[in-house]
What does this fold into?
Amino acid sequence: MHPDKELAARLGFLLCACLSVAALALICFFLLSGALPAIREIGLIPFLTDTVWRPSQGLYGILPMILGSLCVTAGALVLGVPVAILTAVYLTRFCPRRLRRPLRWAVDLLAGIPSIVFGFFFLAEVVPRLQRLLAGGGKGILTSSLLLAVMILPTVITVAASALDAVDGSCYESALALGATHERSVFAAVVPAARSGLLAASVLGMGRAVGETMAVTMVAGNQAMIPSGFLSGVRTLTANIVMEMGYAAGLHRQALIATGLVLFCFILAINLAVAALRRRRRP
Amino acid sequence: MGRLAALLLAGLFLLSGCAGERGTIVAISREEGSGTRGAFTQLTGVADHTGDRTAITSEITNSTAVMLATVAGNPYAVGYVSMGVLEGAGVKALPIDGAPPTPEAVAEGSYPLSRPFYVAAAPDLSPAGEDFLRFLLSDQGQAVVEEAGYISPGSSGPYRGGASGRVVVAGSSSVAPVMERLGEAYTARNPAVSIELQQNDSTTGLSAAAEGICHLAMSSRALTEEELAALGEPSVLAVDGIAVIVSPDNPCQGLSTRQVRGIYLGEITRWEELAES
It folds into this structure.
């Protein structure tokens, strides 16, 4: 091959790779430069631990939103991960061949539905029904957790299924050889072998749940207060940013960028956890 | 005898404004930048010189559309929205202080919750923008405003067309419906101009105009001192009422301004309390 063309191609690919890194670097720079003045003015500890968020009166405590994000994410994991993992087990080990492709296709379709469609569906159909069932708890942690659980299903199912597929066939066969039934072999030998992959899947699902914005803003109630119970209204960090960014100015805007920085740190921690888990998988 | 007493009690309940509904009142409000929220809290007294005192337990919806969907689906909810978007929205608007929530009652002044829609121009407005603004305030523009169900503050004379370019209008989701119709009527006369409508809220639109991101800003509340300094006096596009809305399944028949204030301050928390006050 022509050496110049070779070099040109290499430079071209390098440029593309650099673009992604550049985008990430720009976002980091924007977050840090916008957030640090706010954090310096408000104080890091007061910003993270004050319980009142009232920008019009100069109060910038995001603890209610941090707790809100944590509560709905925890709820989403509790509701979604067991269902997703069991679905992945079914898809890889119990599903008849004919059903496998349509089921996989359904899961992929679920992943492709825009999140705002989910949000509007929940707002129009699920919230009123829950309202009637629970006499007033329509919008809150329960509904948001339900919504996010459904949204993280495709992510967790896909990664968990590939983790289960990657388990060596000998795990399953040796269990069978020892006299275990099909179900026992799967749950006692295959699933534990895929443990770190399943954990990585759950952590990825958690990342998706923490970052979800528009759908959660429609069903969470968005009260800027510490959640008082399972049915209590709640505001997540993402909802806080999307509702106020359009009109925020000055310190308020910088405080919202600082909120974005907190979110970024959450996602960073989650991604580092996934990387660590993936490294541990290789013996 | 007992049945008569029960009938009498029921009659008494029905006569008092808001009877029959039992349960916690779910107050739905808008985000802080919303012009409708700003106007509503000023008019009802929920906001005073110390600031907006809306109860922290109020649910926040971030646009007119989500407000309507939320109230329509919840028989315990109460919210507020521009009167112009009530058509076919699936919610019930309540009479306030005895006055019905209609444009006629707003025009004659008996309905207490009404506010003007403002249009503010960005500094150094383009000729196309100025032309559109002229159309908005002209006889033809105000005719569209009245047709849409709002009250016209009067017009500045007939409009003569002839402009080209692109005009970006941003701001209140309450003003957006009538602005959309005005945009259509304008482009029918001036095909060379394209009107781009961005819907967010009053404060967002006004700060966009001040920064030069859009040409015209729509606001459903009065401008603050900073905004007046940046943009100058706005023009009044229309007068609109703010309707207090409940679900059609809610038996409430009307509220007083005092009751509305009590609900949004968090002082009145149950529907039963409204029957007595």
